Amino acid sequence: MRAIVAREFGPLDRLEYCEVPDPKAVGRGIVVEQEAIGINYPDGLLVQGLYQMKPPLPFVPGMEVVGRVVSASPDAKRFKPGDRVAAISMLGGYAEKVLIDERQAMPLPDSMPASHATALLTGYGTAHYALKQRAVLAEGETLCVLGASGLTGFAAVQIGKAMGARVIAVASTPEKRKSATKAGADEAIGYDNLSEELKARTGGKGVDVAFDTVGGEAFSALARRMAWNGRLLVIGFASGDIPKLPVNLTLVKNYSVVGVFWGEFIRREPEAYAANVRELFDWYAAGKIEPLIGGEHPLSSAGDALKQILSRGASGKHVLIAQGGQTNE
Predict the structure, then answer these.
(1) Would residue 35 be called left, alpha or beta, if left means φ above 0 and alpha means ψ between -120 and 50 degrees?
(2) Which InterPro entries match (predicted)?
(3) Which of 42, 259, 294, 319 has the greatest CB tally within 10 Å of its CB?
(4) Does 87 lie in the same domain as 51?
């Protein structure tokens, strides 16, 4: 089979598209032939050695597995060849086939497009965990979402509405703001004069929950516009600038700055993670959430696709398609 291999930490141009041995089903493993492979911002950081974890070299990046089981070990009892599944693998996803432990997998209905399933796993999974477990977002609260046209921000807009919040989306261009409005945002604004815009749109009260994937100056604006007992969620730093917090603001406004590390959540709290996924799938079936698919790319062009995402030039969910693969759409 063919896969994308990182032989060193460095520029995305150095990723190799090459032949690797087919995985074998061992332990409680199942081998899944991929329909669509999710591309995520952390994948690009991982390849460059900029992520929180650094796997042993060489490695195949990619964390989202969506496809059909082609083989199962004798000890695997939950799935059989032909079953359609979705799973988080942490590594190994950028390949035509991938071996996963069956305990990481969940059944996937034939009616759900593979590209949508990839989005629900990580992008929507991160936003859901952030708003449900970390912020404990309540109905009627005001939620501000930075990077609202990207996958995780777009998800936060839809999930915020599903949870009953008033959502103010922030995006850099009119086209991206239009996308956020289509996702359900009550209002969509740009980054210019963000602090004053938030003050005006909340009547001086500030936002109850802020969802920040951007960092930099935008974080500083949020830090000054949090409501009493607010929760400022730190998701990531797409701007490339890790901000500093004037902690006196948290004191005088009595708000919390809350870190969101979804990868550790799914490792430490697998039962809560599984319950979250079930809720997301239920919302999807009910039409409350629906991912925006921003693009499909051949597996061989993974490096170029990652560049587009890391440059904040992509909207919605982008996926890789292996040769002969399809997204069931």
Answers:
(1) alpha
(2) ADH-like_C (IPR013149), ADH-like_N (IPR013154), ER (IPR020843), GroES-like_sf (IPR011032), NAD(P)-bd_dom_sf (IPR036291), Zn-ADH-like_protein (IPR051397)
(3) 319
(4) yes
Cα 295 to Cα 306: distance, rounded to the nearest angstrom: 12
pLDDT at position 57 is: 97
Q: 278: pLDDT confidence band, cut at 50, 70 and 90?
A: very high
- What's the gap between Cα 137 and its chain centre? 19
The token duo for 77 is 């009892």
Residue 97 Cα distances to 67, 101, 106, 290, 325, angstroms? 9, 13, 17, 26, 11
Q: 110-139: per-residue pLDDT in tens?
A: 999 999 999 999 999 999 999 999 999 999
**Residue 326 confidence (pLDDT):** 44
Identify the residue whose tokens are 């004037």.
246
Mean pLDDT in residue range 22-26: 97
Q: Cα(19)–Cα(300) distance, rounded to whole angstroms? A: 11
The pTM is what? Answer: 0.88
Tally of domains in the chain: 2
Q: What is the number of other CB atoms lying within 10 angstroms of the CB of residue 254?
A: 11
What is the C-alpha to C-alpha distance for residues 78 and 70, in angstroms, rounded to an integer? 14
The reply to whether 237 and 134 lie within a common domain is yes
Beta carbons within 10 angstroms of residue 217's beta carbon: 14
